[in-house]
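Saturday, quiet lab. Running sequence design on the structure tokens for the scaffold JK sent over.
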């Protein structure tokens, strides 16, 4: 069987420096993604209401550094794994309900992200296409060091669609043009990238913390 594999590296470019952000991979019909660098996983949760309160542990520096990876399989299963960088042992393996990929007939959101401040992403100093990986660069040249992004990630078939409203609402955020990359013959990765206002309270709140909200929208033909 011929293996079909497409890999994508997403970076932030700020003041002529490329910074590591997230990676994505379609391996046959299984989709994988995660942050480009290891970090401390401070907790996971499933929101049960329209409001969300997040408290960062005071002892977060004692948390082990892990490599995080999410996966959306052909079977419909949705996994989130965190693996120790010291022992290679899987510390966290969250299995969530999934969606049959064949049911994706319109943009389907699978992750919502509030980035760290740009300055807290590590520089990337190798070839952008190293390891036969494609690359997409988000231009942040007009942003400040403390600026943050709000990004919504979708899988979508080709076509013309109306996107669902943003999962989170912010004042004075700016939407850039959606960024796309083909991950398979049937599915396209779409990134709706918003730059948050530097006047936002998030600009000064825990600038080294990144917030990722995982979960698949319900499939719909009329989003």
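Result came back. Writing it out in full:
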């Amino acid at each position: 069987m011929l293996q079909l594999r497409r890999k994508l590296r997403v970076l932030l470019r700020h003041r002529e420096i490329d910074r590591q952000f997230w990676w994505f991979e379609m391996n046959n019909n299984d989709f994988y993604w995660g942050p480009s660098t290891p970090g401390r996983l401070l907790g996971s949760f499933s929101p049960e209401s329209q409001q969300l309160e997040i408290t960062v542990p005071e002892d977060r520096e004692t948390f082990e550094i892990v490599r995080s990876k999410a996966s959306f399989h052909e079977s419909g299963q949705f996994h989130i794994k965190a693996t120790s960088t010291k022992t290679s042992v899987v510390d966290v393996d969250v299995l969530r309900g999934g969606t049959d990929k064949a049911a994706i007939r319109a943009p389907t959101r699978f992750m919502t992200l509030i980035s760290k401040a740009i300055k807290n992403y590590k520089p990337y100093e190798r070839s952008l296409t190293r390891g036969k990986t494609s690359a997409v660069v988000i231009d942040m040249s007009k942003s400040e060091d403390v600026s943050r992004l709000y990004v919504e990630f979708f899988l979508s078939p080709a076509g013309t669609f109306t996107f669902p409203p943003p999962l989170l609402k912010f004042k004075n955020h700016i939407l850039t043009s959606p960024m796309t990359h083909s991950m398979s013959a049937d599915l396209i990765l779409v990134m709706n990238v918003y730059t948050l206002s530097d006047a936002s309270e998030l600009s000064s709140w825990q600038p080294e913390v990144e917030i990722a909200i995982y979960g698949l929208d319900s499939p719909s033909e009329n989003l």
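Notes for JK: The two ends are 35 Å apart (CA to CA). The longest strand covers residues 17-27. Ask whether to fix the surface positions before the next round.
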